[in-house]
Amino acid sequence: MTTYRVCCFLRRFRAASNEPSEAVGDVFRAYADGGGGLLGEEALRRFLREVQRETDAGADAAAKEVVAFAAEHRLLSKGRGLTAEGFLRWLFSDANAALDPRRGVYQDMGLPLSHYFIYTGHNSYLTGNQLSSGCSERPIVKALHDGVRVIELDLWPNAAKDDVEVLHGRTWTSPVELIRCLEAIKEHAFATSPYPVILTLEDHLNRDLQAKVAKMLKETFGEMLYVSESEHMAEFPSPDELKGKIVISTKAPKECFQTKSSKDAAATEEEEGVWGEEISDDKATARQMSEQSSGKYTADEETAGAGAEDEMEVEAEAEAEKKSRQGTEDNEYRRLIAIQLTRRKHDIEQDLRVDPDKVTRVSLGEKAFEKAIVSHGDHVVRFTQRNLLRIFPRSTRITSSNYNPLMGWRYGVQMVAANMQGHGRKLWLTQGMFRANGGCGYVKKPDALMRSKPLDFDPRAELPVKTRLRVTVYMGDGWRFDFRKTHFDRCSPPDFYARVGVAGVPADTRMEQTRVAMDSWVPAWDHEFGPFPLAMPELALLRVEVHESDNHQKDEFGGQTCLPVWELRPGIRSVRLSDHKGQPLPSVKLLMRFDFFPASDSNSTQ
């Protein structure tokens, strides 16, 4: 029994159990040997084939692994088979995870960079908010270890104008020396992935300091630094070709000039709640953008920020480019820029014009991008088939909150920049996307986004269903090991419920909820969701959240995860939950089942 003290009384509750939920027990009994209550090796193979959808050869290999696991943990009863408790222990094990832990990188990595979604950070050096936090190399190191492949540095002259600092310009953020950031990148760039790190530089330097930066880049990175053979590439190299390389991306050299201050935007960010607003299907946003009277694609509110590359004054850019042309042609800083950033002309058709002879990168703020996709969604898809497009958060997100990354991925945008310092549902989606393909930071875009004739990506359109996904949440465990007894409720065990849904194209986006499992550290729900109709499963992310119900105040957070649907292994699988920052909880897991059906399969509704 578990006891909780309430004033001068003791409340007693049933102790946490290691028994399977009723539905999991039914599965075990359906395959266990008659009368013996044990799962023998032949019955195990049948379970692996029929429920886990293993091939005959796969079932044989998996059965041997299960038996070895059971023997190691002493879960075999007299060597004759698995007990119900042993069966549950194996189902919850990491070897039975929803994403195959042995799969690694499996996608074709030999295509141009434009064919991949790339794990992209925004203002990677900030330790907190966009206005007054410190700047450090530590967030860069963490991002690289998390698999981020695009690091952004804002370069500014120091007070004496003789050295280079990294900071969020025209704010109260404290600077960090550029060399500390570069050395950290060199040491940690390939700690978790061998594929290229793209270093985007927001440059506010004069020509002398640009030369100093060029020297620092060469001396720090040496052979790791990728230098293109020509100033303008006809096609981007592939991640395979760039393995172990640092790639520089910025605008062509220019004289430094000032940007508008983002301090004035400090009070304009809306409150979205503790974990951010719920993920929407974006249909309302599309309607709002299309109904605006002007609907013009301009710099408008984006020009308020100092943290984005394209918020420079147009006149100052023109003057800077003129001065740049007056310099020597043999400019070392220019030579190191492998991926040139094209300056925006604030005309959508000009900005997204595809040049058949060279590739480039364009950077847009989230508001400008929202306007662009309302009227020119097909232009965006066509542009990103050859070129790179980066979207960055609006300047008023001073708390380092994020926007819905699917807004960009649906249109083929490779670099959907996220504030890694901010936490919540939008960042969870980004973390979920880049769990795919072995967590290498590069995920191949769906074929539909690379066709010669782009699809109609009207956010209000209903796309045909390709497949259906049925999800069952059986039970959860681990909170009793990772949290103190009174963490969720001082007077009783927690009352957990789960939320499960899909984020993807608008037609696929939905979220549903289980009942509340009262007073239990090992909640059992046995709740079936769906089947969810999926129009684009190759862009769908499974969302899972657990909360503790509280009648008197806001429900408490109990864990979350986000997983790429196209990599889910069918059958009964363990799903490890993470904390609000996306770090895996040591013990907390759910036991879930995933069943895929053809779009027309009548059995999927049974």
UniProtKB/TrEMBL annotation:
Matching PANTHER family: PHOSPHOINOSITIDE PHOSPHOLIPASE C 2, PHOSPHOINOSITIDE-SPECIFIC PHOSPHOLIPASE C FAMILY PROTEIN
**Subcellular location field:** Cell membrane
Which residues fall in a compositionally biased region of kind Polar residues?
A: 287-296
Give the InterPro entries listed for this entry: C2_dom, C2_domain_sf, EF-hand-dom_pair, PI-PLC_fam, PLC-like_Pdiesterase_TIM-brl, PLC_EF-hand-like, PLipase_C_PInositol-sp_X_dom, PLipase_C_Pinositol-sp_Y
Gene name on record? LOC100191939
| Feature: compositional bias, Basic and acidic residues | 319-329
Membrane spanning segments where? none
Under the heading Pfam families, the entry gives: C2, EF-hand_like, PI-PLC-X, PI-PLC-Y
Its lineage reads:
Eukaryota, Viridiplantae, Streptophyta, Embryophyta, Tracheophyta
Q: Mind listing the GO biological process terms from this record?
A: intracellular signal transduction; lipid catabolic process; response to stress
PI-PLC Y-box domain: residues covered:
363-449
The leader peptide range reads none
By what name is this protein known?
A: Phosphoinositide phospholipase C
Where is this protein primarily located? membrane
Q: Which reaction does it catalyse?
A: a 1,2-diacyl-sn-glycero-3-phospho-(1D-myo-inositol-4,5-bisphosphate) + H2O = 1D-myo-inositol 1,4,5-trisphosphate + a 1,2-diacyl-sn-glycerol + H(+)
Task: Extract the GO molecular function terms from the UniProt entry.
Answer: phosphatidylinositol-4,5-bisphosphate phospholipase C activity
Is-annotated flag, keyword DNA damage?
A: no
